[in-house]
Amino acid sequence: PAANPTPSAEPTPRTVRVLYRVNPLVGNPAGVAVLYADTSEQMRDVVVTPPWLLEIEGKTGATMLLVATNDNEGTLVGCEILVDGVLLSSERQTSEGSDLVCVVDLE
Q1: Sheet of 63-69: strands edge to edge?
Q2: What is the DSSP letter of 2?
Q3: pLDDT tens digits for 45-55?
Q4: Mapped to the 3 state alphabet, what secondary structure does 68-102 carry?
Q5: Rounded to whole angstroms, how far apart are CA atoms 78 and 65?
Q6: Has residue 5 got a pLDDT over 80?
Q7: How far apart are alpha carbons 46 and 38 in whole angstroms?
Q8: Which residue, among 18, 9, 27, 24, has the nearest Cα to 82 in the 3D structure?
Q9: I want to staple 91 with a disulfide (CB 3.0 to 4.6 A). Which of 26, 39, 100, 103 is the partner?
């Protein structure tokens, strides 16, 4: 009789530390709209005054997303996502009113 192949086991997700950051680049922006994926990949929205940071746990296989919308005249912001202390996504606003999108696929 032929041997049954062993099904390949899915790797167990590993927990990592995810840090979202929105930093002021020019001026003092207030009321920056932030949309981010939480620990369970649900989207959350908050209005923040940079500098702002949030540390959460993420699991390998998840996609972490941070969107910052700054409409403050004369100000610019940047967004970053760090995983276990390593900067993996960074965007800088170059004009007023533009959206920034930082994305990291946790592997």
Answers
A1: 43-48, 32-37, 63-69, 99-105
A2: P
A3: 999 999 999 99
A4: EECCCCCCEEEEEEEECCEEEEEEECCCCCCEEEE
A5: 14
A6: no
A7: 12
A8: 18
A9: 100
Token pair recorded at residue 91: 């965007």
Mean pLDDT score of the chain: 91
Q: Which amino acid is at 88?
A: L
> What element of type H or E holds 16?
strand 15-26
Q: Which two tokens stand for residue 30?
A: 């207030």
Decide if 90 contacts 102 (C-beta within 8 A).
Answer: yes
Cis? peptide before 51, omega within 30° of 0 = yes
How many beta carbons lie within 10 A of that of residue 68, not counting itself?
Answer: 28
Integer Cα distance of 85 and 16 in angstroms: 10
